[in-house]
Amino acid sequence: MVGRTTDGTESPIITESDADTDKPRVRYGELVILGYNGFLPQGDRGRRRSKFVLYKRAEPNGVKRSKHYIVQSPQTSQAILNAKQHSISYTLSRSQAVIVEYKEDPDTDMFQVGRSSESPIDFVVMDTLPGDKKDAKVLQSTISRFACRILVDRCDGNKARIYAAGFDSSRNIFLGEKATKWQDNVEIDGLTTNGVLIMHPKGEFCGGSADCGQWRETSVGGDVFSLRECRSAQQKGQQVYDENNILQDGTLIDLCGATLLWRSAEGLRHSPTKKDLEKLVDEINAGRPQCPVGLNTLVIPRKVSLGDHVNQPYVYLNCGHVQGQHGWGQDKNTNARRCPMCLEVGPVVTLCMGVEPAFYVDSGPPTYAFNPCGHMATEKTVKYWANVDIPHGTNGFQSVCPFCATPLVGSPGYIKLIFQDNLD
Ligand SMILES: [Zn+2]
Ligand SMILES: [Zn+2]
Predict the structure, then answer these.
(1) CA 345, CA 337: separation in Å to the nearest integer?
(2) Contact in structure between 350 and 374 (CB atoms under 8 Å)
(3) Does the reported pTM lie above 0.85?
């Protein structure tokens, strides 16, 4: 076969198929990495991709807590040595550890996420770099190789629970001496170094009326806590008893270096499809928007095109006027330009459609764009993401464009687009 480069737009979602049945597989939901517009820049390949669909497995592979006991040397204990036995080892001191054995659970399917490319990881996630820095190399990743695991109830796909840490190739999870851990009554639990943070939106993600909820941390055992003082602090937060680790449509999962969006199967049924989004672009293009200066017809690209083409639309970020490429009003010393329509001075960027459907909170024409990257989406979608705080570094939060992870600039961080054919 001749090697072919691909931008990933055409790459199919790879799924395991039930060999002996033609039944469509039950979809639980999707995990989508924030910052990609439908595919990874180098193309989606295997388990390394911009989003991962969780399908009901042919055979259950979930596990649940069984017995636990104290050992002197966990490295030589039977449960750790036995590569078929799932277990979690909580090191208390150099000479003492609690081992929790896990047994097969016929009622759940397990999916694991992390930076490792070893086989227990279903969805390989690397650090996300914002927009224009996508080609830079991450020298020291903060994402755990076995970051988290999700267990879905096979009878009720709406019950997908997330837990910190994933089982490695030997089916073990090791929490070292320095890891935060504690024992309540009989159960032992702990946190991973950089933790797994979750944010359930307040309200329904679909429809666009939801607000950003509180960021919480989920433990290895799946309990929910307020955030630590800083990301990897030794002291755990306060347990939050009236919240849980069940993913809701729109729940965000932060792995410290990449943020994932959970979309439930039910939520996705109410979201636009990629086809719908492409149709919306076609409809705007069919209106033959004009550049008021060059008087040429503008064409919104459906795909990111390399290099400028003559019909590429640009948006003036301070006023929202959409025009073609021209030299009018250019300030030689800065990147700013004076808009010929309203004489406002400001930066200008290329317009590009946000085509990852999972990030949309509703359907409709893409009449808004994020500032400063120029990704277009619906009004409600743009406004929703502008109000969502995404963990940044070890202590801060920022709002970002979900299609490219560029931090939003200014307030409100978006602009209403004004096309020439829409003026009257
Ligand atoms: Zn203007
Ligand atoms: Zn963007």
Answers:
(1) 5
(2) yes
(3) yes
Centroid of ligand 1 to alpha carbon of 341 (angstroms): 5
Phi and psi angles of residue 156, each rounded to the nearest 5 degrees, phi first: -140, 90
pLDDT of 18 > 80? The answer is: no
- Ligand nearest to the CA of residue 423, numbered in listed order: 1
Radius of gyration of the chain from Cα atoms?
Answer: 24
Q: How is the chain split into domains, by residue range?
A: 27-270, 274-416
Instruction: Name the pLDDT band for 7 (thresholds 50, 70, 90).
Output: very low
Residue 255 Cα to ligand 1 midpoint, Å, equals: 40
First-to-final CA distance of the chain: 54
248-275: per-residue pLDDT in tens?
999 999 999 999 999 999 999 999 999 9
* 374-386 confidence digits (pLDDT tens): 999 999 999 999 9
Give the span between the Cα atoms of 215 and 109, in whole angstroms. 26
**Poorest-confidence range of 6-15, 131-140, 241-250?**
6-15
> Two tokens at 422?
């829409």
Q: Cis peptide before 366, with omega less than 30 degrees from 0?
A: no
Q: How far is the CA of 388 from the centre of ligand 1 (A)?
A: 28
Which among 150, 163, 161 has a CA at the least distance from the CA of 61?
150
Among 372, 274, 211, 224, which Cα is nearest to 32's?
Answer: 274
Contacts of 405 by beta carbon, 8 Å cutoff, 6+ apart: 34, 35, 128, 129, 130, 131
Please report where in the chains the tokens 């988290």 appear, as a residue: 148
Rounded (10°) CA dihedral 308, 305, 354, 335: -30
Q: Nearest 5°: phi and psi at 277?
A: -65, -40
**Residue 35 CA: which ligand is closest?**
2
For residue 412, say if its preceding peptide bond is cis, omega within 30 degrees of 0: yes
